[in-house]
Amino acid sequence: MKSHVKNLLFKNLTNRQTFAKNTFWMTFGNLSGRLIRAGIIIYAARILGAGGWGLFSYGITLVTFLTVFVDIGIDSIMLRESAKAKEDLVRQGQIISTSLFIKLILLTIGVSVVIFVAPLFATLPGVKRLFGLMAAVLVFDSLRNFGFSIIRSKEKMELEAGLYMFTNVAIVAAGIVSLHIRPTVMSFTASYAFGTAIGMLATFYVLKKEAVKAFSHFSKPLVKEILYSAWPFAVSGVLGLLLLNTDILIIGQLRSAQDVGFYSAAVRIVQLLYLFGNIMSLSSLPIFSRFVKEEHEKIRTALRNILRFSLAFSIPVALLGITAGGPIIDFVFGKEYSPATLSFQILLLTLAFNSLASVLGNIVFVYNKQKMLTIYTAIGGFLNVILDLMLIPKFGINGSAFATLFSSIISDAFLWYIAWRIVRFDINLKIGKILSSSIVSSMVLFVLLKVGIHVIIAAPVAGLAYLGILYLLKEPLLKDIKSILQTSSSS
Question: Please, what is the Cα angle at 39 between 466 and 131, to 5 degrees?
Fold first, then answer.
């Protein structure tokens, strides 16, 4: 049994098992880490109130928006090229070293923008004094994520899981202490910066051998090659922020800090659920990168299976979340945040589209068609801004949620078409059993809530009902999971 678990969770045996292992560790690490961090977010939101929490959210969103060029896809390109050069250690070292050099230059520019430019755009009173600490968060988080990309290129996501959890424990511990001593936005921001610094140092300690190489294998010719591959990411990043973050910025301009706090509460939960789609994307990227040269049929098969697996998670979670929207918001943030309920339910409808887009974007990327990602993000970003300006004045934060939903549908439909043109995968994903099971389990949840059972109990029961119905309907995905377990056992 011990050997079976070790093979399953700590070794790379087959492509399917490696994907499952990496998905497990990234799900476990990210979900556990974010749940740990959610503790301090909920605690801070309650202690600081909607106004104080809205101020912090507005500040961090503005900093992210103004420094999007810090992450122009360098991490993803480094991951892709390192996976391709798995057997060429010299080139792999050059890729890591040159990517880090570019990253440090971009970070220097980013810090300057946060300190000198961000205050010129800030509109909410009191947010300007937070920017120095938020610049520190930017540096520590960016370097830690760079380290995570090195780990992903080696398909050792179990290391990333441990480091991510450790980072969030540090953030929570520092946050609780700071809010207990001095319950202010400034104190909380300082503790957040301290926690991210601890996480960065731990990551580079684990990667100490690679860190030494990163400063000794710089290749000047690679700078041009990396930047040429990265520029579509720079454009896509700017446009993508229009889809993901302008909601909060426009709400901050047109409404109050309290409205920002409400909407931020809804977004926080949905972004946590987006995590699964991102994990599917990151776990599949090294595999797609290795297949891209000659094994196109394997990419088609893997893509179809991963898309079905993503929908098997996102569809039931979205329907269950919509059914229990009010109780979830009240339980997590308190009744003060109940005005966020409808926005939360609307945003949950984007979950399936996001999970598909995360994986389909990989296909476009590994075939070096990232210029098409620029068009994809342009459609979603500009459409979101236009709809925000039209709907927020009349419908408030709910209008912003509708803008995000409609923008996601249109832009993700375009991405689906582009990915299909590249690999011609089977678009009939056969999700009838998944959809039926999701609907029935949502009905189970509705009944449980109506008879007075608390959402913390009712939701897991409904989730088990979903799995049970899949089993009764003999859903093929369950057979795939059984096959993976048997492979690790025989190895």
Answer: 125
